[in-house]
Amino acid sequence: MAKKVLIVEDNEQNMILENDILEIAGFEVLQAVNATAGIELAIKEKPAVIVMDVRLPDMRGTEAVKVLRKNKETCDIPVIFVTASVMAEGLEEVKATPNSSYISKPINTRTFAEEVGKSIK
Question: How far is CA 33 from each of CA 21, 37, 38, 91, rounded to the nearest angstrom?
Answer without folding.
Answer: 18, 7, 7, 22
